[in-house]
Amino acid sequence: MALDSFEDARVATPLLKQLAWQELELGVLFHFDLHVYMPGGHEHERSRRVRINPDRYDPVALDTDQWLEAAKAMGARYAVFTATHHQGFLQWQSDAYPFGVKQAPWRGGKGDVVADFVESCRKYDIRPGVYIGLRFNAHYQVYDYLLNGGKGGSPEEQAAYRRTCERMVTELCTRYGDWVEVWFDGGLPARSEGGPDAIGIVEEHQPQALFYHSPELAEHRWAGNELGEAQYPCWATLPSHVAQSRVHRQRESAKQALVHGDPDGSVWCPAMADAPLRNHDWCWVPGSAHKLRTVHELARMYNRSVGHNANLILGAAVNPDGLLDDPDVELMEALGRELERRFARPLAEAAGEGTLLEIPVPGRHVDQVVIAEDVAGGERCRSYVVEGKVERDQWWPLAQGTCIGHKRIHTFDATTVGALRLRITDCVGTPSIRRFAASHVGH
Questions:
Q1: CATH of domain 16-343
Q2: Backbone angles phi and psi of 406, in degrees to 5
Q3: Nearest by Cα to 130 from 196, 178, 93
Q4: What share of residues in the chain are helix, strand, coil (percent, to 5)?
Q5: Sorting pLDDT into bands at 50, 70 and 90, what band is 9?
Q6: How far is Cα 335 from Cα 355, in angstroms, rounded to an integer?
Q7: Which of 33, 76, 231, 428 falls between 20 and 30 A from 148, CA-CA?
Q8: What is the pLDDT of residue 250?
Q9: What is the pLDDT confidence band of residue 5, given thresholds at 50, 70 and 90?
Q10: pLDDT 10s digits, 136-191
Q11: Which CATH number fits domain 348-439: 2.60.120.260, 1.10.10.10, 3.40.190.120, 3.30.420.310?
Q12: Cα–Cα distance measured from residue 432 to residue 422, given in angstroms and rounded to the nearest whole number
């Protein structure tokens, strides 16, 4: 539309809980499961199929405060815990079936890691989320939701497993207060295809939690890789919920929608980029500290996820004692310091509506800008350019793009400018920029 036309935009807008989730930006996914005690060491595929004796579960020094203190130091605003993963081992006081902490000798069968995790989240002012693994369950020999190791059982047997899944979800959604999101490992099958009615349970008991995900509903989406990066552009809208589902994203058109979104999409479904701190170990493996990413790598992930209009969630592996290893904690603390150095003290910033926004930075070196739309009114910008005033009336292009969304971060060679301006060259409706900030970081 013409830049001088500011009628109301016809664009998709987020739910309040989606808006709140996007504001959190950075999270931690704490992976811990019975299979870290697997005889002979953890192996991913075996963890899905080989049932381990719950007597082996013994996190003798379990300290969820240590986990959340490290998350806080990293700058995380939310955290997610694997309440049950590939083993089907239930890390709360569950009545769904007898395979969990209730049956383990640890803490005399009275332990509840989910409760400990939630209490620590509240202590450190971090929003808690829960990760529920139903797709694989070594205890029941369920593989990809099918009994008998993936071959499938009778309709009655499959229905019984579905009801068991619903009991697990109900317990987790009714006993621990509010979740910021309820995350189903690998996604759920549709209810019409025999999937559990998790949507109904979450909507009834956790109406403020984001649901992630099934072909019927996804309130955020995966960015399409486990590299901690969202490919640009990364719009927050999709043509439908189906585009992000595990089955449909095998189609090339759906894959492109999953990765890039669709600026004209009618469904608000912002992206989440994920990566483990140890490349590429989501769960603890002995002797793998050398796989830890560097601070520089993680900061680059941040720029290419949060700075590409996606949330970033980093995987932290809990060791068999129930702790994060010291090198992992040190890395998380270092990342927090680096993000504060890069973003906490801009040279100047401004906000406003319309297609032109200018900030003075007289005679300063600038090498980073952060732009953020007020996405409560949808993503209205379609293209823009950032320019620096290098002489009295000469503006020099420093960066450009299409999608801004919740946040766009640009870095470029340090340039001495007297002012910076953001010029939106194409838009839908009136653009509303809630932040345009300039910094000198010295990358």
A1: 3.20.20.80
A2: -60, -40
A3: 178
A4: 30, 30, 40
A5: low
A6: 35
A7: 33
A8: 59
A9: very low
A10: 999 999 999 999 999 999 999 999 999 999 999 999 999 999 999 999 999 999 99
A11: 2.60.120.260
A12: 12
Collapsed DSSP state (helix, strand, coil) of residue 116: helix
Q: What is the mean pLDDT of residues 238-254?
A: 67
**Residues in CB range of 40: below 8 A, 6 or more apart:** none
pLDDT tens digits, one per residue of 58-108: 999 999 999 999 999 999 999 999 999 999 999 999 999 999 999 999 999
pLDDT, position 246: 57
- Distance between CA atoms of 244 and 253, rounded to whole angstroms? 11
Who has greater pLDDT, 105 or 251? 105
Between the CA of residue 283 and those of 241, 324, 412, what are the distances in Å?
29, 11, 36
Domains of the chain by residue range: 16-343, 348-439
The pLDDT, as a whole number, for residue 392 is 82
- Give 255's pLDDT tier (boundaries 50, 70, 90): confident
What distance in Å separates the CA atoms of residue 271 and residue 310, rounded to the nearest whole number?
5
CB atoms within 10 A of CB 204: 12
Give 368's strand partners. Answer: 411, 439
Burial class (CB in 10 A: 0-12, 13-18, 19+), 142: buried
- For residue 341, give the H/E element and its range: helix 326-343
**408-427 and 381-389 strand pairing:** antiparallel
Using CA atoms, how far residue 31 sits from 87, 172, 198, in Å, is 13, 17, 22
Contact of 273 with 347, CB cutoff 8 Å: no
Cis upstream peptide for 86 (omega within 30°): no
b (16+ CB within 10 A) / e for 2-41: eeeebeebebbebeebbbebbebbbbbbbbbbbbbbbeee
Measure the CA–CA gap between 177 and 121, rounded to whole angstroms. Answer: 12
**Residue for token digits 């809208």?**
237
What is the C-alpha separation between 134 and 439, in angstroms, rounded?
A: 45
For 343-407, where are the E strands, in sequence order? 348-353, 356-373, 381-389, 395-401
